[in-house]
């Protein structure tokens, strides 16, 4: 809380590596143990919890309306989660890239995914 200077929510789990705001009430986090969570500021527990990554989460992003979430990891994989279902669901996971993926963003109005990798390259998966 910026006005009151108080901590509003603490995350149980591994060290957080990334954070993504998903509108006024939701945000996503990725941690050292490979866990991706989506939080609603009005609730004490995460709305969604995904444990598909084998290594630390390096990046997360979502579409503008919050229907899906993408994450990248040190395991070299890109994951796509469907947030329209209660509890969410892993929709797809890429094959392992040769290098760890370090970040992820959407471009072209959310129709293309772009990732960075550990050797300084930008990848645009098909």
Strand count, sense and barrel status of the largest sheet are: 4 strands, antiparallel
The first-level CATH class name: Mainly Beta
Instruction: Provide the structure class.
Output: mainly beta
Please give the share of residues in helix.
under 10%
How do the strands of the widest beta sheet line up side by side?
1-2-3-4
CATH fold group:
Methylamine Dehydrogenase, Chain H
Mean pLDDT: 87
Number of domain units: 1
**Which word captures the global form?**
globular
CATH superfamily: YVTN repeat-like/Quinoprotein amine dehydrogenase
Overall strand count: 11
Proportion of residues in extended strands: over 45%
Topology:
Elements: E1 16-21, E2 26-31, E3 36-40, E4 48-50, E5 57-62, E6 68-73, E7 78-82, E8 89-93, E9 101-107, E10 112-117, E11 122-123
Antiparallel strand pairs: 1-2, 2-3, 3-4, 5-6, 6-7, 7-8, 9-10, 10-11
Structure description:
This protein has one domain: YVTN repeat-like/Quinoprotein amine dehydrogenase (Methylamine Dehydrogenase, Chain H, 7 Propeller). The protein is mainly β and 126 residues long. The chain contains no helices and 11 strands. β7 and β8 (89-93) form a beta hairpin. It has strands spanning 16-21, 26-31, 36-40, 48-50, 57-62, 68-73, 78-82, 89-93, 101-107, 112-117, 122-123. The radius of gyration is 14 Å and the shape is globular. Belongs to the WD repeat WDR55 family.
């Amino acid at each position: 809380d910026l006005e009151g200077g108080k901590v509003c929510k603490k995350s149980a789990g591994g060290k957080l590596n990334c954070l993504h705001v998903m509108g006024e009430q939701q945000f996503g986090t990725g941690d050292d143990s490979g866990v991706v969570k989506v939080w609603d500021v009005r609730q004490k527990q995460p709305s969604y919890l995904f444990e598909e990554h084998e290594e630390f989460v390096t990046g997360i992003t979502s579409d503008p309306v919050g229907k899906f979430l993408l994450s990248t990891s040190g395991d070299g994989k890109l994951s796509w989660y469907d947030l329209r279902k209660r509890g969410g669901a892993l929709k797809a996971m890429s094959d392992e890239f040769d290098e760890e993926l370090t970040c992820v963003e959407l471009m072209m109005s959310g129709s293309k995914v772009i990732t960075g990798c550990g050797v300084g390259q930008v990848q645009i998966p098909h």
